[in-house]
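Following the same procedure, backbone shapes were mapped to integers, as reproduced here:
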Amino acid sequence: MILLKFVCAIITRSFFILVSLIGVWRVKTVKNDNLYWLLTVLYLPLVVEMVVTLKRRKGQDYKWFSPAILLFLISIIPSIWILELHHQENKASDPQCRKLDSWDNVKGILPSNGTMGNETLKHLERMLTSVCPNDWILALHQVLLILLILGKWLLPLGGGVTRDELSQLLLIFVGTAADILEFTSETLSDVKDNSPQLVYIILAVWTWSMLQFPLHLAVVTSRPEKPEELAGDEGCCNSLLSRHSTDIWNIVESLFIQDGPFLLVRLIVMVYFDVFHQMLVFFAIKNFLVVVLNLYRLIVICQDFRPPASSSSTLPI
């Protein structure tokens, strides 16, 4: 079992480093500047974290927080920022490229059976550089989100985390990843040539929303104990936060990390940047409904909360 934990911890972080390296290679290729290889320094902390975790915790992750996922985000997000900004600045001058919108185009990227060794690598590099910039960026977004989910699944469980909690967390990650990908792809496609500041706003909100993945507070919280077990503990679960910590954290995530910021950005796009279409309105309404329902949920929790009577008040007179 310990050997399996070691293998899973190493494989997961190796995939993190590989994807980060692909992102840096793409930045170097697009910018045509070898100085961008210095971005590889950003994944050195991930290597250090892997060594420390394997040595001190036998590969085991933490209960509330995943340093490996946070360091992976730190290593790849700068590359995606550079690629997004470069693409927005050079959309009009992009050369002819190969879109990944058909099986024939995808097969054209793969090396043929007749090529071997160095020829295979050269052919693959030529084909990858011929892919359209927008498809490259979208692929990085997709691989990043999928790897975050699979990586959390493969990482050894932290102390006190059950498999049931992990399964709930992974389901939350899938829904969160879909919303984030839809937000970036839809809103960035609405950017006009004269709105570079909107790109910064969207990327900043996207970066902020990605902080949900290293944190596990939405599911991994203190488990409620049975009422008879709490009878001898006066201070336990007397507060609203301790009793409904999971619900409150879910509401906070939605209001301040995901749906709230997404709604604000979409309103800015519609009102300030004068962009209007059906899908933008639909997703803005969807974010608005989620925000309102979460506020309603918070009000219900607060109104229904009744602190347990203290043990002294139940003693006979």
Summary: Residues 1-89+126-224+240-305 form one domain. The chain has 13 helices and no strands.
